[in-house]
């Protein structure tokens, strides 16, 4: 009979991995640039600590092996599978009711994460149409929209009648820069603007 309090029973439970022959060198948490990931033994310890009221053989995890394949396994089965395939267990979402873990080589996982974070977001193009009979206040509001878009790093395309071209060019914010000379087609003009 165990006389330890409930919390002590949870924290003193034996670690699952050494019995399965998993290398003990991967105990620490590993981190990429922005997010920390629990890997291998540290992951198993965290899952067991979180679900300490459940026997270790009954703890369920959702295992991601390939982009489209997920399996619902017990934690010992997931560990055994990763040992057999010589891959790392990486904690993806441990806050779920059933923790989500990925089975993948740690270095290739890190490489993919760094590759995704290194690609900058593409600038989106915002189109603004101005009507020929636009009121002064409405024109002001449209140019305020242009200013907000430029501050966020977007490219703005303004389509307007030729009569408004000079007015709009004078009222554009000081940090706005024309990407190309205005395109004029008949009575319509088009300008592309980005922040300097």
Task: Give your account of this protein's structure.
One of its GO terms (biological process) is ribosome disassembly. This is Translation initiation factor 3 N-terminal domain-containing protein. InterPro entries: T_IF-3_C_sf (IPR036788), T_IF-3_N_sf (IPR036787), Translation_initiation_fac_3 (IPR001288), Translation_initiation_fac_3_N (IPR019814). Pfam families: IF3_N (PF05198). The chain is α+β, with helices and mostly antiparallel strands. It has 2 domains: about 5-120, Translation initiation factor 3 (IF-3), N-terminal domain (Ubiquitin-like (UB roll)), CATH 3.10.20.80; about 125-195, Translation initiation factor 3 (IF-3), C-terminal domain (Translation Initiation Factor IF3, 2-Layer Sandwich), CATH 3.30.110.10. It is built from 6 helices and 11 strands. Strands 7, 8, 9, 10 and 11 form a 5-stranded mixed sheet that branches. The protein has a 4-stranded mixed sheet with strand order 4-3-6-5. The chain is rod-shaped, with a radius of gyration of 29 Å. The protein starts with 5 loop residues before the first helix and ends with a strand.
């Amino acid at each position: 009979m165990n006389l330890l309090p409930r919390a002590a029973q949870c924290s003193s439970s034996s670690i699952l991995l050494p019995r399965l022959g998993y290398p003990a060198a991967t105990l620490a948490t590993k981190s990429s640039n922005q997010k920390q990931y629990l890997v291998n033994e540290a992951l198993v310890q965290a899952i067991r600590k979180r679900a300490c009221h459940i026997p270790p053989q009954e703890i369920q995890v959702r295992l991601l092996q390939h982009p489209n394949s997920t399996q619902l396994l017990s934690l010992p089965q997931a560990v055994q599978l990763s040992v057999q395939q010589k891959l790392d267990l990486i904690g993806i979402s441990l806050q779920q009711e059933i923790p989500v873990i990925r089975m993948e080589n740690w270095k290739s996982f890190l490489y993919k994460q760094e590759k995704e974070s290194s690609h900058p977001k593409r600038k989106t193009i915002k189109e603004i149409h101005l009507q020929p009979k636009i009121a002064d206040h409405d024109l002001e509001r449209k140019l305020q929209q242009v200013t907000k878009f430029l501050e966020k790093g977007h490219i703005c395309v303004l389509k307007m009648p030729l009569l408004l071209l000079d007015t709009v060019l004078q009222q554009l914010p000081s940090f706005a820069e024309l990407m190309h000379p205005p395109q004029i087609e008949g009575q319509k003009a088009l300008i592309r603007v980005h922040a300097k």
